[in-house]
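Hi there, hope your week has been kind to you so far. No rush at all, and the record is pasted right below.
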Amino acid sequence: RNAVTLLKKQLDDASAARDRERLRAESLQNVARELQRRLEEECAKANVLQKTISNAISQNAASNGFQAPDLTGKSGQRRNRDGVAEKGAVHLDEILEKKDEKIDKDDTNEMRPRRRAKLGLEPLPEEGEAEDGEDPVPRSWEYVVQGQYDRLAEQPDFAPKLASCFPEDAVSSARSRGVAFVCTRGRRADAGVPNQDDFVLARHSLAHDGHIALYGVFDGHGQAGHHCAAYARGVLPESLFGQGSLIAGPEEALRVAFAQVQEGLLQQDFDTETSGTTATVALVLHFPVSEEDPELQGESWLYVANVGDSRAVLVSRTGEDRSEISVNRLTRDHRPDDLAEAERIQSEGGEVRRLRPGSGTSRIFAPGCQWPAMALSRSLGASIAGTCGVSSEPEVASVRIANGADELLVLGTDGLFEFCSTKEVATRLCTEGVSDEVLEDVCSVARRRWARSSYNDTVDDITAIAVSLDKSLGSRPQESEGEPDEKDQT
């Protein structure tokens, strides 16, 4: 009995020692995780500082090109904050050279200045300098604002997405040009899922007060949807602005950019077999009348490319007193319940059927299988669904902007348009004006309707961009009202 008692005591002591060691190990693991977190924070701060320094250098560099800010100071490939490899940019001189070879191949040297004046592509003067009788013309990007996935920050419900800005006052500059944007996380059953939406706003000045502007919204889906959206948001603009055919053939340039994004996306380390993203981008080319040659008429064109169910809408004023609002949808939802898309899917070997008996939702399946159950007929990424006819090829539309009639450009993900009609959104913005406050209020209406219609109170991520064409196409920015916004400091 004494021996048994002694053994029990030794066993209890051993168990207590084991528990102490386990607690010590857990404590060490917590310390290691905290150190790792701090290391990642410091690395993130270093990246931000490096971007700030590189942006300052790029801003002061003498360049006439569509050269995106080099965030690393190195040539060749670079990586953004999302760890996505991005391609280098091409200088405007190279673009002009290629354009001249394609368009002006048979022209005389005397005709080339007229062509470039018509396109607003005269070489820009040095910053702070002006030609005789002319005001100084800015030579760099007016603003570049894009979404930022921050792995270190908690993302509560309905939190706004972090934004990366170039230059520092990019948000104020965009607002002065009549641009408002909202990108907020929804409410998920899994609190660990981040905001899978993304966005980009970019505007580059041309000679004679012309400009090129790009607006884009992206809605990721699948486990790595946020990575897919971030990749498309980062690479598509650089691919587009790096093409020599951008001015001569914007529609083909958009198709090439989408193809390059899809090719690069499928080579990434994160999941692109079942994950992907929508992409809806609007490219505005504004070429004002040349004062040097009034016979060359100014014009503004809008080009839209889309895969998925995000939308782009052009809103116009009609009637003698311009009191009526006309809404022109420039995109269609790429879903299997669209008749044309369903026929295309079936012709390419896929099947379109209900997700379950009695369900009102159509999905795309492999023949005789229960996968991939894809809700979109077109998407970037989602390579497995590509075997069932799901395409990454965008539909491209173009329209000449009618000054004085076309008033508003709106882009949004299905988080906005699933429960808010395009007419409702357009009416609110036309009536109350384009501002972040009005756009946020419109999105909050969509958010409440999502919550009411959801059986588990989930709400989709929402991204929206609104552009007042009157302000955007004006030769001078409007003065910003109020104090500088905190977003400029993000």
